[in-house]
TrEMBL record:
Domain 3-hydroxyisobutyrate dehydrogenase-like NAD-binding, residue spans: 166-293
Pathway connected to this protein: Amino-acid degradation; L-valine degradation
6-phosphogluconate dehydrogenase NADP-binding domain residues: 4-163
Full protein name: 3-hydroxyisobutyrate dehydrogenase
E.C. no: 1.1.1.31
NCBIfam families: HIBADH
PROSITE patterns linked: 3_HYDROXYISOBUT_DH
SUPFAM superfamilies per record: 6-phosphogluconate dehydrogenase C-terminal domain-like, NAD(P)-binding Rossmann-fold domains
Molecular functions per Gene Ontology: 3-hydroxyisobutyrate dehydrogenase activity; NAD binding; NADP binding
Amino acid sequence: MASTVGFIGLGNMGGPMAVNLVKAGHTVLGFDLSEAAVAAFVGAGGKKAASVAELAAAADVVVTMLPAGKHVRQIYQGEGGILDNAKAGTLLIDSSTIDVDSARAVSAAAADMEMIMVDAPVSGGVAGAAGGTLTFMVGGTDEAYEAARPYLDIMGKTIVHAGGAGNGQAAKICNNMILGISMIGVSEAFVLAEKLGLEAQKLFDISSTASGQCWSLTSYCPVPGPLPASPANRDYQPGFAAAMMLKDLKLAQEAAGTSGAATPLGAEAAALYTLFCNSGGNDLDFSGIVKFLRGSQT
Ligand code: NAD
């Protein structure tokens, strides 16, 4: 059934996600602070909303794809925001990657207004957003998950219910903490192998079928050669930018701090990605950390 969907945050990810909802036959109202983002969305069949309030009042479903927790809290709970203006029963889907505490606080405020909310951060990048092949990690009640599912199915391919409110964000940062740590581990092994005169291809052949195997090695190898499709073969053009990895590692550290979890390697990974980003790695693929560990930017 066609719905009126409001979409706030029409950037690199939100723009193509919103267009996929248009293509599926929904009426989609879009709002963004960037005029260029709104113009691209309107050019692809979307309708421009004059304000968040207008969009929220008209929509059956609101999707948000914003940079960080402060933007999400502002857009939902600020003056003239979604919660002040949407009808009771409106379905709210926040796909931004934000801190777990903000996700849970906004979800509780939405429930107080009798709205149904999921946090549904994604992995899959801009290509996944454009192709409708994103993975969504969803936090919310069973009812909210079932209500969101038809819309998530349009924008994504793999949809996982991770538990109650905030658990989508929890799943995303836990996964990316594993990824950041494992990419550093694999990179250190290749740097050591170079120093010891062990060819990268040999280490790959051995470790990819031995106990050192992991996704960072066998699907995303950080040195050129073994996997022709990995960003290492195109001078570390992303891919998944180091700045985005750092954002997720910082969110994981924030959550570790508030929950009391000990994550010493997560802390070290955040520190190393900070150094890599500060030394020019920001816009490189996160696997480019191998260059930083080698002590050269070449
Ligand atoms: P982006 O900066 O391209 O888009 C964010 C958009 O939000 C911008 O167009 C900006 O103008 C708009 N915006 C900011 N504040 C606003 C406000 N108050 N009102 C209306 N619009 C506002 O970022 P992106 O790459 O699309 O990422 C969005 C989210 O998705 C982030 O949380 C990011 O961490 C997450 N994410 C991104 C990727 C990726 O590969 N780019 C992958 C997974 C998850």
